[in-house]
């Protein structure tokens, strides 16, 4: 996927938008780019679509976002087919993929917001016909942010502290979870780690942790019951988002590598902390 702006700039500026300017329609050329991106990013395990609610004027006819979203009439929809892959890997891959789409929308100057449960699936099913074993996983509104935020949006941002992120020392470690990772020990990867730190997550829980060992960066996720309540597992989905930020930033600054499973760590779990993947330099 190609971006017009620096991925660091895109990640830094991106915010969840819940109040949209209903008087400002998205230009057709941007809608075209979004639709092409959704097609390019689909796999056997999941697909994406854009749903328009411009023609439905009454509140009861709209998507039913329970007051969390206002002014948006165009939505991106993520659909998972549970015939492909296990739930863990599906959720991780979905998070990596949909976050790339979210960042592409940000690159186009559009606002978005990850929505796992606050939308009406029955109503959405009148717009998109699901195939066998398919489920609606994620919805994101798409549009231009309103200049003035509603009181409900200000409250929503305060509850999960949406504008805040955990400190470096709470997320990144060296060799074990007892030793914080010094910034000076990360070299050029410091920028990639900073962009990972800015990753969005469900309720802003930021469940991911990194342990640097030798030249690799091991990604772990803190599992909780919240992650298992939805079509996708939110904890693993959040891990996928973090992986996306890291790999896109590494690619931009010329650091070659990839996420790989370490067979010695795979399936490792201590308390609620579970191993996900390792970034290996190439």
Could you outline the blueprint of secondary structure elements for this entry?
Elements: H1 7-13, H2 28-41, E1 46-52, E2 74-81, H3 87-107, H4 121-125, E3 134-141, H5 151-158, H6 168-171, E4 172-174, H7 189-197, E5 208-213, E6 216-222, H8 234-252, E7 257-260, E8 269-270, E9 273-281
Parallel strand pairs: 4-5
Antiparallel strand pairs: 1-2, 2-3, 5-6, 6-9, 7-9, 8-9
Helix pairs in contact: 2-3, 3-8, 7-8
Please outline what is shown here.
This protein folds into 2 domains: 7-155, NADH Oxidase; 168-281, putative nitroreductase (tm1586), domain 2 (NADH Oxidase). It has 282 residues and is of the alpha+beta class. It contains 8 helices and 9 strands.
Task: Provide a descriptive summary of the structure in words.
The protein has 282 residues and is of the alpha+beta class. It folds into two domains: 7-155, 3-Layer(aba) Sandwich (NADH Oxidase), CATH 3.40.109; 168-281, NADH Oxidase (3-Layer(aba) Sandwich). 31% of the residues lie in helices and 19% in strands. It is built from eight helices and nine strands. It has helices at residues 7-13, 28-41, 87-107, 121-125, 151-158, 168-171, 189-197, 234-252, and strands at 46-52, 74-81, 134-141, 172-174, 208-213, 216-222, 257-260, 269-270, 273-281. The strands form two sheets. Strands 4, 5, 6, 7, 8 and 9 form a six-stranded mixed β-sheet that branches. The chain has a three-stranded antiparallel β-sheet with strand order 1-2-3, covered by helices on one side. Helix 2 (28-41) packs antiparallel against helix 3, helix 3 (87-107) crosses helix 8 (234-252) and helix 7 (189-197) runs antiparallel to helix 8 (234-252). The longest helix has 21 residues, at 87-107. The radius of gyration is 19 Å and the shape is globular. The two termini are 21 Å apart. 37% of the residues are buried.
């Amino acid at each position: 996927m190609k971006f017009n702006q620096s991925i660091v700039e895109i990640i830094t500026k991106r915010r969840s938008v819940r109040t949209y300017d209903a008087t400002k329609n998205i230009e057709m050329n941007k809608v075209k780019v979004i639709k092409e991106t959704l097609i390019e990013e689909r796999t056997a395990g999941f697909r994406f679509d854009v749903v328009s609610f411009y023609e439905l004027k009454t509140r009861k006819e709209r998507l039913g976002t329970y007051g969390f979203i206002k002014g948006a009439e165009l939505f991106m929809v993520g659909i998972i087919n549970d015939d492909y892959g296990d739930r863990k890997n599906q959720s991780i891959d979905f998070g990596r993929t949909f976050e790339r789409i979210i960042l592409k929308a940000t690159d186009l100057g559009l606002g978005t917001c990850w929505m796992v449960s606050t939308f009406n699936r029955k109503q959405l099913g009148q717009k998109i016909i699901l195939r066998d074993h398919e489920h609606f996983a994620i919805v994101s509104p798409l549009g231009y942010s309103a200049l003035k935020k509603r009181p409900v949006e200000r409250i929503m941002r305060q509850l999960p502290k949406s504008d805040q992120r955990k400190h470096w020392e709470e997320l990144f470690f060296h060799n074990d979870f007892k030793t914080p990772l010094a910034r000076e020990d990360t070299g050029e990867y410091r920028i990639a780690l900073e962009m990972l730190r800015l990753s969005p997550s469900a309720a802003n829980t930021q469940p991911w942790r990194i342990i640097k060992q030798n030249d690799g960066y091991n990604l772990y996720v803190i599992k909780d019951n919240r992650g298992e309540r939805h079509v996708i597992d939110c904890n693993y989905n959040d891990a996928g988002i973090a992986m996306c930020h890291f790999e896109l930033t590494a690619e931009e600054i010329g650091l070659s590598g990839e996420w790989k499973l370490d067979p010695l760590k795979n399936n490792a779990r201590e308390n609620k902390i579970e191993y996900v993947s390792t970034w290996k330099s190439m």
